[in-house]
Amino acid sequence: MRVLTLRDALAIGVGATVGPGIFTVVAPLAGAAGSLAPATFLLTGFSLLFSVLAHAKLASTFPSTGGLYVFVRRAFGTAGGFFAGWSFCLSAAAAGAFVALGFADYLGIFTAVPRLWVGIAVICFYLLLNLAGIRPVVFVQKIFTAATLSVLLLIILSGFLHREVLPRQMELPPPGMLLHGSLLTFTLFAGFEVVGSMAGEVRNPRRTLPVAMLATLLIAIFLYTAVAAVALSTQAAEELAGSLIPLAEVARHLLGTGGSYIVAAGVLLGSMSVINGQILVISRIMSAIARDGILPSPLLNFRVSTTLASVLLAGVMLGFPSVGVLAQISSFFFVLMLISTNMAYIKLFRPKSLRQGLFAGGLLLPLVFLAGVRLEALSLIAAWLGAGGLVLAFKLIRHRN
Questions:
Q1: How far from chain centre, in Å, is Cα 6?
Q2: CA–CA dist 74, 356 (Å, integer)
């Protein structure tokens, strides 16, 4: 049933994209790119513009629930679509688990409850919320998204009203550091694809989906760039690079003692909306795969799919409590999602020239991410893909019989 308006889709997209990552990535980014840190968000964001436009074109042309799975299946057949969707379910689960653990760590400022129990409690909350239906989910998502944006805008506004409005004079780093910094910020823009996975629930999808996805990307570019600029206007890059809570220190400088608590609140609120986005995307992809008979037919029920999505997310979190491994798994499959979606765009719409196709797909920067994945992450990736192969093989054998 198509019940989501443009405002709903935008809240889901922005809430799933603008999460807790910006509150911590400023530190390593300052060390990698120095005074060019704000520009790295511009480079990364606009390099993804072509991928977002391709994704929006696919979603508005084939506006059914399932997103990535639907696009790749139409372009490369059932097996290609299945492995693309199956892979991205693990990516979303790893991202949700990563954020849930980060949520628990920041909540440790206020309570001593063990991080795993906190993470499980957050997932259970969203499980129950999603079981209640899409309208309560969107209502809560709007609240958390608005609150997170308010925290970021408060930091930005305070920075520009502060007397130290211009970045300190620093030696410009080599241009190569700009690319290095951009790679650190790449996965911070993940989240726009959640809107595409819910295309079957969006009103007027041909208009709403492209607007929501493009607006999500542009809002993220503005917020990330402005936050990095403010951070470097109040502290030198060298100071930021050595901080574990860089934005908390920036907020304390701008807003006084309560600034660090405001940032902690922003991390918690942003985490909640991102976790919800991951459960949404997993459940929609699973439902779409089930709709085509690859997974058992009971999964056609969104409530069953949502339950499985939550269980998967919790299982990944319990089995791989290392946030570094979870981040690598999520990044790896996010890159594969971009590449497979862009290839589907090129295959289905056949741009007039190869140059147009490559630009529209934005294939070059994502490929850099496929190197350097840790062994622990590769082991779970291989196991998940192997399990997917067994599921698909069982379906094909059953179909032949």
A1: 19
A2: 21
